[in-house]
Design a protein that fits this description.
This protein is α/β, with parallel strands linked by helices. Helix content is 61%, strand content 12%. The chain is built from 6 helices and 5 strands, in the order H-H-E-H-E-H-E-H-E-E-H. A 5-stranded mixed beta sheet has the order 3-2-1-4-5, with helices on both faces. Helix 3 (97-110) links the parallel strand 1 and strand 2 (115-120).
Length: 297
């Protein structure tokens, strides 16, 4: 059994660690609330853009646009290049948050011969460099500070590569928060868009359609709206991923705190036992000494 001094030193070390885990839990909680608040404030604008895209397509269903490609046509295309925007974290200590995203990336890259990789997050960059996977574009300092400006920069890069046919598809791999206790890494197609995804279901055939004038044209209006929609989708994914990271870190820190407190409880029992044993030993030695003195006397 360890001595009381060693046990006290270990208990002190655990208490110092608990201060760190508690602080990290509180910081992550604050960041999570701030990020969710900012996303809630911007969501109505981007949902409005999505509704306007549906209205435009409802009035001009046969409109031609580089941003829209039918699923059947896309599936027939051979030797296509796929772009993957991968959102990971800059820091660890977040459970399986980064691992789940990278598992999806591994699966996708194993099935795709031609691809371009766009990476957000230092842990993702370290992973790809360690495995010899080329990163075409790295967006630094974005994972820890998601903002509309950073999302716009990413969107401009992706749209430029798509419109100049450097990529035929763009997919985004990120983590979505299903609820406070569950988050899931997933992949979604960002470009090209499909008209069927914006169709309003359940409308009767004879429904009144308001008159809308598109200036200078419906295609020009759509070409202005779609990039903003893409930026909004990327911003939402960045904030969702950031929120999931903070939530995962809160869970990890809470688990570490619970484990530390359990260790303290066990060490406290050991300390009391060691202390009691030392006291008993001292008493025994005193009694033995007294008896020895009496025998001499």
């Amino acid at each position: 059994m360890a001595g009381t001094k060693e046990i006290k030193e270990r208990m002190g070390s655990i208490r110092d660690t608990l201060k760190i885990t508690n602080a990290m839990y509180m910081i992550s909680s604050s960041k999570l609330k701030k990020a969710r608040k900012e996303l809630a404030e911007t969501e109505p604008f981007f949902f409005g853009l999505q509704q306007e895209m549906s209205r435009i397509l409802r009035h001009v269903p046969d409109m031609e646009s580089d941003y829209f490609v039918e699923k059947e046509e896309l599936e027939k295309k051979k030797d296509k290049t796929v772009g993957y925007l991968v959102i990971t974290a800059d820091k660890g200590l977040a459970g399986a948050y980064n691992t789940n995203v990278l598992k999806i990336v591994e699966k996708e890259l194993s099935q795709c011969e031609n691809y371009r990789l766009y990476c957000v997050g230092e842990l993702g960059r370290h992973y790809f460099e360690g495995h010899g996977i080329e990163i075409n574009t790295q967006f630094r300092y974005t994972a820890q500070n998601p903002s509309l400006n950073r999302a716009r920069n990413i969107g401009e890069t992706l749209l430029d590569d798509y419109l100049h046919h450097r990529v035929d598809e763009v997919h985004i791999i990120y983590t979505r928060m299903e609820n406070a206790a569950q988050e899931e890494a997933q992949i979604e197609q960002l470009l090209p868009l499909h008209k069927s995804d914006f169709a309003i279901e359940g409308l009767p055939a004879d429904i009144f359609m308001e008159t809308i004038a598109f200036v200078p044209s419906a295609q020009a209006v759509m070409d202005r709206v779609v990039p903003e929609y893409v930026v909004g989708f990327i911003y939402g994914a960045l904030v969702e991923s950031f929120s999931c990271e903070q939530n995962a870190r809160m869970t990890a820190m809470q688990s570490a705190t619970d484990s530390g407190q359990e260790m303290l409880r066990q060490l406290s029992i050991q300390y009391n036992r060691a202390r009691q044993a030392a006291i008993t030993q001292e008493i025994t030695e005193i009694i033995a000494g007294v008896r020895a003195q009496k025998k001499k006397g």
